[in-house]
Write a structure and sequence with these properties.
single chain; alpha+beta; five-stranded antiparallel beta sheet
Length: 389
């Protein structure tokens, strides 16, 4: 694995463009001053893998719905109707997600770890900052697998055209508005949400931003300051809404039933987001080269990773070999359902591990890396890349 040392982005520059979480609690930089060198055929392979996997996820989600397997995925019962409604109607368009991969460099096969389909972060870093690093270091910005911004623009248009061809967006768009929301107090999620609002606005949508506690919900729709919004983007996980805000889950289901608003990302992305889907994928596509063996009970004869079906930042993940726990992270998800996934080592360099993240917006559209220990957690660093033979 090759790394290229670069001049880092200065903190005053990062602050000026709104990126405020540039320094970790220990005082170290969150954005790495190195780039991962990726060959063109490796970048293409990440792109192809994400496209193939998305089709597989659609088949797996259909299996969940057809066979009522929601409980296996840990999906709360109060969201099942919303999931089915959003799945059956094309207007509920999946805006974006992020696949997390092991491998893909130095001849190591690409293996899917999970799909952050509902509320993926690292968007600002991947779409904006790694491009800015190339620019600042007088490198060609085209030497990067990074069309995230452009693909998001196109996918916002597809909310209206519902088609691959977005050329008729302006003909069809009739002033429908998108309200973008995150939770107050989380700067990373707020900036991610505001970046998406900026992109939608650039496309031609009328947009606004509001913290979720300022939004008004009723059977008649979603409102802010008395203005009705036809679309609501929320960087709040569906499972958190279901578990912590049960009344809101029921209200959002009613809003969808009454066709008063469209919610992004759609409720069905919770099927993709649940790591329980990995077990179903492996049932449908056993021994597929992009998949790791995954079951709902410990694997025999191989090292495996125990993961909560819903979790964040590496919490409550453990790596187990036989009876021995090789590595374990504590966290708040101890009462979750768990899956057991074959262990595969991440790309590594000098005892640091690199996980590839590929954003997906109608197609694979951009690559970035996170660097950390055997289990990546909230102390991991963001590492950009450059395509270099």
């Amino acid at each position: 694995m090759r790394l290229l040392k670069v001049d880092k982005l200065q903190k005053d520059y990062l602050e000026n463009i709104g990126f405020s979480w540039h320094t970790d609690e220990d005082g170290s930089d969150y954005i790495s001053d190195t780039l991962v060198c990726v060959k063109e055929n490796e970048a293409n392979a990440y792109y192809e893998a994400s496209n193939e996997l998305y089709d597989m996820f659609i088949a797996a989600a259909q299996n969940v719905i057809d066979n009522d397997r929601f409980d296996e995925l840990g999906i709360p019962f109060n969201l099942v109707e919303a999931i089915k409604m959003s799945w059956e109607n094309d207007v509920h368009w999946h805006l974006y997600g992020r696949f997390d991969f092991a491998g893909g460099l130095d001849g190591k096969p690409i293996k899917l770890l999970e799909f952050n389909a509902d509320t993926p972060t690292a968007l600002f870093e991947s779409a904006i900052l790694q491009w800015a690093i190339l620019k600042q270091n007088n490198m060609d910005e085209n030497h990067q697998f990074n069309n995230i911004y452009e693909c998001l623009m196109e996918n916002f248009k597809r909310l209206i055209t519902l088609d691959d061809d977005t050329s008729l967006f302006q003909n069809y768009y009739q002033g429908w508005k998108i309200l973008f929301s995150s939770i107050a107090g989380n700067k990373e999620e707020e900036i991610t949400t505001k970046l998406l609002a900026y992109i939608a606005n650039e496309v031609g949508f009328e947009t606004n931003f509001s913290y979720v506690d300022e939004v008004e919900f009723s059977d008649e729709g979603i409102f802010k300051d008395g203005i009705n919004y036809e679309y609501w983007f929320k960087l709040i996980p569906w499972e958190d809404i279901a578990i912590e805000e049960g009344d809101l889950a029921m209200l959002l289901t009613q809003i969808m039933r009454n066709q008063k608003a469209i919610i992004l990302n759609p409720a069905y992305t919770l099927i993709f987001q649940s790591k329980g889907i990995m077990k179903i994928l492996y049932e449908l596509y056993p021994n597929h080269p992009l998949l790791l063996e995954t079951k709902d009970q410990p694997l025999t004869g191989k090292t495996y990773v125990k993961k909560p079906v819903f979790g964040r930042e590496g919490a409550n993940i453990s790596i187990i070999k036989g009876e021995q726990i090789l590595k374990e992270n504590e966290g708040p998800y101890v009462n979750n359902k768990f899956i057991y996934q074959e262990y595969v080592e991440l790309n590594s360099h000098e005892n640091e591990f690199y996980q590839a993240g590929v954003f997906f917006a109608y197609e694979g559209c951009g690559l970035g890396f996170r660097k950390g220990g055997m289990i990546l957690d909230n102390s991991s660093k963001f590492v950009g890349h450059i395509i270099k033979e």
